[in-house]
């Protein structure tokens, strides 16, 4: 007779299967990402960095079968980060919601993973300002979240 009520063997990391977190088809996600990229670049051309970043962080694509769309979204987020003046970063960070800051932190770590593609000094500047605003909790939430960007 077993006294154990929770099947701990089912919680094994090696047996984890990612749930399909997207309810949209890949075509719908692609259309959404492409329109978002166009919209973000228009907002950015008007010099509205906070609004452009907020829009870029909105509804990121999750899942294993949308890697190309994740790359496109990451590229757009990095364009916004790179085009923002260093003195404007604190104001932009303060204008973002806590959920947006966590998504931004995911993109910052994604950018750090590809130093040959993205400017790490820009990423580290943003990282510093986000941590000053959110504290260390944002790092923990990003590292423990299974939904990657």
From TrEMBL:
Pfam families: P16-Arc. InterPro entries: ARPC5 (IPR006789), ARPC5_sf (IPR036743). GO terms for biological process: actin cortical patch organization; Arp2/3 complex-mediated actin nucleation; regulation of actin filament polymerization. One of its GO terms (cellular component) is Arp2/3 protein complex. It is found in: Cytoplasm, Cytoskeleton. The keyword Cytoplasm applies. Keywords: Cytoplasm, Cytoskeleton. Belongs to the ARPC5 family. Functions as a component of the Arp2/3 complex which is involved in regulation of actin polymerization and together with an activating nucleation-promoting factor (NPF) mediates the formation of branched actin networks. Functions as component of the Arp2/3 complex which is involved in regulation of actin polymerization and together with an activating nucleation-promoting factor (NPF) mediates the formation of branched actin networks. Arp2/3 complex plays a critical role in the control of cell morphogenesis via the modulation of cell polarity development. This is Actin-related protein 2/3 complex subunit 5. It comes from Basidiobolus meristosporus CBS 931.73.
């Amino acid at each position: 007779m077993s006294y154990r009520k929770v099947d701990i063997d089912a919680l094994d990391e090696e047996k984890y299967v990612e749930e399909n977190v997207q309810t949209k088809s890949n075509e719908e996600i692609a259309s959404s990402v492409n329109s978002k990229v166009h919209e973000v670049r228009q907002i950015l051309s008007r010099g509205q960095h906070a609004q452009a970043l907020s829009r870029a962080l909105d509804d990121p694509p999750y899942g294993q079968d949308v890697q190309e769309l994740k790359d496109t979204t990451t590229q757009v987020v990095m364009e916004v980060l790179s085009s923002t003046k260093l003195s404007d970063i604190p104001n932009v960070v303060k204008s973002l919601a806590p959920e947006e800051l966590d998504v931004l932190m995911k993109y910052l770590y994604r950018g750090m993973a590809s130093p040959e593609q993205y400017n790490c000094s820009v990423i580290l500047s943003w990282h510093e300002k986000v941590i000053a605003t959110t504290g260390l909790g944002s790092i923990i939430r990003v590292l423990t979240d299974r939904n990657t960007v």
